[in-house]
Amino acid sequence: MKRLRSEDGIAMVMVIGMLVLLSVLAVTLIDVMQGEASRSRTAVKRDAAFQAAEAGVDDYIAKLIDDRLYPTHFVHPGEATRRSSTSNRVVAAAQAWQQADGSVVTYPNGKDRWYGAAQLGNGYEYDLEVFPPSAASPLIRILATARPVNDVDVRDWREVETLVRPSSVSDYQMVADADITYGSTATTYGKIYAGIDGNNVAHNVRHDGIAYGDVYAEGSVTGNTTLVNGARKYDAATSPSIRTIIRSPINFNNFLASLVDIRSAAGAGGIVEDNAAVDAWWFTFSASGTVSVQSCTKNTLKPIGDRIPTCGPATPLAIPANGAIYAGQPVIVSGIVNGRVTIGSAVDIYPGNNLSYAQPGDDVLGLVASHSIIVPQWAPTNLSWRAATIAQSGTFRSYGFDGQLNQSETEYVGNGARTSMTFTGSTATYGGGSMGLFQTRTYQYDSSLLYLPPPWFPTLQDAYTIVLSRELTASSS
Q1: How many CA atoms lie within 13 A of 127 on its CB side?
Q2: What burial class does residue 299 get, using C-beta atoms within 10 Å of its C-beta: 0-12 exposed, 13-18 middle, 19+ buried?
Q3: Which of 250, 416, 447, 463 could form a disulfide with 439 if both were Cys (CB 3.0 to 4.6 A apart)?
C-alpha cells in the first residue's frame, strides 16, 4: 500500500491564518470605532457651538426689548470692534455708541471679541456682528459665530445670521380687548391675543379648534385646543407665563399714535381727503398701481353700512411713495392693490367690494379706523377681502348689530343674508365683533405680514419678530 504524505503542521498554519485575520478585523474595527468617536465628538462640539450662537442672538434681542435703540446706543459686550462709516470712530465691545456715529458700521478687525465663556458656563463662546437698521434695510441683522473656548479650528465653529424687527400688531391674526372664542370647527393660523380693556378687565381666549400659532390671554386660555407646529398657550398661570413672551400688555391706546402718523405722512407726500361736506370717500385700487378716489353722499340719509352711497366721478391717483392715505370721514375700499399702502380714517372703514393684491407677498394694505371696521350689508353675497386691519376704539363686524352699543342697526337684512365671507389678513379690534351677516365666515392669517407689515402700522412695545434665521458657513473674518 502507498503511504500518504504527512499532514503534520497544517493545523498550525490554519491557526496562524485565523489569528492574522482576526487581528486585521480587530484593527479595522478599532479604527472604525475611533473614527466614529471622533465624528461624534465633532458633532457634539458643533451642536453646542450652534446653541451658543443662538444664545448670543437671544441675548442681543433681550437687549433690544429693554432698549429699542440699543444698536445706536451701545456696542454689545460680545460684539466685535465696530467702526462708524460716518465718524470713522472705532468703538470696542461694551462701550457707548454715539449719535454722531450713525447707523452704517463695519468690523475692521473681524471676529476679535469672543464672549460668553463665563456667562454660558459650558466651555463655549460667541462673537457678534450687528448691523443697525437703515433707510435701505429696516431690519436689524445679527451675525453670531460661536466655538469652543479658544478653539481656532474653524471646522468646529457655527455661524448664524438672524434678521429681526420690532413686532407689529399685524404679526397677530387677532388682537382684541375683549373675550375671543373659537369653536371646535375653527382653525387659526396666526397668533391670538386677548388683552386688558379700558376698565382694567383681563380678557380670555377659549379655543376648541386647531391652532397653528400661539394663543395668548391676559386672563386665561381655555378650551380643548389642538396645538400644531409647536404652538403653545400663554397666560398668567402657564409656565412659562405670558410675561416671558409679551413683556407688557398690548395697549390699544398706543395704536392712536399710528393714525396721527398716517395723517402726518399723508400730508407730507401722501393723499389727504378731508371735507366735512362729504359723507364718505371711496378708494378703488387698480392693478396698475393707482387708486381712484370718489366723494360719496349717503343714500336717502341712510347709514353707509345700510345702503350703498351715491358717489361722484373718480379721480385716479398714483399710490403715494410713502404709502400713506388719510381721510377725515368714513372710507369705503375695494379693488386690487399694487403697492404698499395704509389707509387711515378718522371714523369707520367699510370693505365695499372684493379686495386683493396684484402680487401677494409683495403688496400689502393696512386699514386703520379710529372707530370700527364694518362690512356693509350691500357687500357682495360672496365677499373676499385681504388687509391688515385695526379698529382702534370700535369693533370688527358686519353691519346689523353694534355690540358696543348692544343694539340692532336700522333696516338690517338679517343674519346669514349673504352667503360667504373670506378674510385674509390680521385683525386688531378694541371691542371684538362678529360677521353674522354671512352664512359662512373664513378667517385666514396672511403669513406675509410677518415680513411685510403695512407702512405706518403700529409696532408693539417690548417685542421683536424674527424675520429670518439661517446658518452660514463659518469664517474667521
Answers
A1: 24
A2: middle
A3: 416
What lies within 8 Å, CB to CB, of 347 at 6+ separation is 328, 329, 330, 331, 369, 370, 371
Q: Is the pTM of this model over 0.90?
A: no
Residue 243, C-alpha cell as written in the block = 410675561
Burial (Cβ within 10 Å: 0-12, 13-18, ≥19) of residue 457: buried
Q: Where are the beta strands (DSSP E) in 86-189?
A: 90-91, 105-106, 124-131, 140-148, 158-168, 172-176, 180-182, 187-188
Asked if 449 and 364 count as a contact pair (C-beta separation under 8 A), the reply is yes
pLDDT in tens, 439-471: 988 899 999 998 889 999 988 877 788 888 999
Amino acid identity at 242:
I
Rounded CA separation 474/49 (Å): 11
Residue 416 to residue 439: CA distance in whole angstroms? 4
The three-state secondary structure class of 173 is strand
Segment among 132-136, 300-304, 305-309 with least mean pLDDT? 132-136
Q: Is 153 helix (H, G, I), strand (E, B) or coil?
A: coil
What is d(CA 279, CA 179) in angstroms, rounded to the nearest whole number?
A: 33
Q: How confident is the model at residue 1 (pLDDT cuts 50, 70, 90)?
A: very low
Residues with Cβ < 8 Å from 268, sequence gap 6 or more?
Answer: 322
